[in-house]
Structure prediction request, 239 residues.
Amino acid sequence: MRGKRGRLDRLLAVHLQIPRKSVRALLAEGRISLNGDTVSAPDLQLDEFCKLALDGELLLGWDPVYLMLHKPAGIISATSDAEQATLMQLLPDALHPGLHIVGRLDKHSSGLVLLTNDSRWSESLMQPDAHVPKLYRVTLANPIAPEAVQAFAEGMYFDFEDIITRPARLVIEAPRVALVELTEGRYHQIKRMFGRFRNPVVALHRLKVGNISLDASLAPGQWRHLSAEEVADARKIVE
Prediction:
């Protein structure tokens, strides 16, 4: 039931491979419990972290998982791929079921990636209207034009999508290094924005998503669980 929500009778019928009529009989006999309490209503709405038991034996149940991972350059942000190394290969197999990536980075980018089995949490962070800020350190091939700061702040017109990008913050740290903060995630957006100045991106490293910063103690390829405070902070910025 990871990532699933719906009626109690429907989910039990699918899991037990029995007709819904048989499920209703189990409910009437008091043999089904939900989060430790006996239930009888077939139309109860469940979320993905409910714990269901039949005759005291757990059928479905798990806890929410929230992770940060320091993505190395050269691997892809995918749960599986037949030919290329993926983020999931950096995690223990026991964490894989139901886990999905919250905001991907392309193969050649590095830095903070969030993963969870809580689809509501990830959807709240990634929905377009949430405007969750993401902070990147960008290394360029050439010195950064000072006028790029204003151009990023004003937004740029992308003719392929027929949109103007939302205002972005550009801070020049060194002649060829800048911090960029976006509140959207258009296709290769940062590379395309610097492309307007004919300045190729050499490296792109994500430092922060919302209020969650990449743990400086994590080497590339390492991961850890988010703290309860970090999970809550991610929700706060959306709210």
Remarks:
- The chain has a mean pLDDT of 89.
- The chain has two domains: 6-60, 66-238.
- Residues 6-60 form a domain with the Structural Genomics Hypothetical 15.5 Kd Protein In mrcA-pckA Intergenic Region; Chain A fold (CATH 3.10.290.10).
